[in-house]
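Technical note accompanying the year-one report. For the benefit of new consortium partners, we illustrate the data format agreed upon in the data management plan: each record pairs a sequence with a C-alpha cell string. No post-processing was applied to the example shown here.
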Amino acid sequence: MSLTAWEKVEIARNPKRKTAIEYIENIFDEFIELHGDRNFKDDKSIVCGLAKIGKQNFTIIAQQKGRNTKENIERNFGMPNPESYRKAIRFMKQAEKFKRPVITFVDTKGAYPGIGAEERGQGEAIAKSMFEMAKLKVPVIAIVIGEGSSGGALAISVGNKIFMLENAIYSILSPEGYSSILWKDSSRVKEAAEKMKLTAKDLYDLKVIDKIIKETSSDNAFHEICKCLKKEIVKSISEFQDKSESEIVEERYQKFRKMGEFVNLK
C-alpha cells in the first residue's frame, strides 16, 4: 500500500529520523568539521567540513536537526541563520580552490525567520548561496534526506545531481504555509500536500531530482541506505572526471533551465 503525500510529510518530520551527521559518519571514511563564517559566528544548524571516501576528498555542507529539545535549541531546530549560509559559501569557495566535489545534505523546514536573522540579511545570504553554487567549478551533489522546504533548502540544493530519499519531501514551502496562503485555511494540509507534488516520486517524474534512494523497513535499513548513497556518490563523481570546469558549470545551468521548462509545461 502506497503512502499518501501527507503521510510522507509526517515521516520526513519524524524526530527519530536519521540526521545529516549520522549519514556523514556512515557514508564517508573520514570527516573533519570546520567552523564559522569569519563574520558573525558559527551557526550549528549547518555543519560544514572535509570528508573522504578512499582517496577522494569532498567538502560537506549539511543541515542538521537535533534529537531532543537541548540539541534542537543548539541546532536552532535545523533552521539556518544567515551566518550558516555564509559559512556554507565560505567552504564552497574553498572546495572550488582545492578542486573538491561538494556534497550537501538537505533537511530543514526553512531558513530561520527571526528578526535578528532578517536584520543580518537572511534573504541576501540565501540568494548569494544559490548564486555561488550555480557557478561553482566543481561537481555538486545535493541529497534530500528529510524535510526540504522553502528557500532555506534550495540555498544548498543547486547541484549537478539531486538525490532524494524515498520518504523525504522537497517543496517551495510547508503544506501548512501553502494552505494558509492559497486557501486562508491551514487545516487543509493533507490536500495541500497532494497538490504540491512534494514527494520523491512526484519530483522524479517532474525531472526535478535525478534519483530516488529506496527506504526499507528492515533492521539494516539505514546501513543499506548509506551503502547505496556511497555507491551513487562515487559513481556520480567518476562521471565528472573527464569533464572540464566549464562543462560542469554549464551542465548544472542547463539542468535547472530544463527543469524549469519541464515543470512549466506540466
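Partners are asked to follow this layout when depositing records. The beta strands are 30-34, 46-53, 56-63, 102-108, 140-149, 161-165, 169-171, 211-213.
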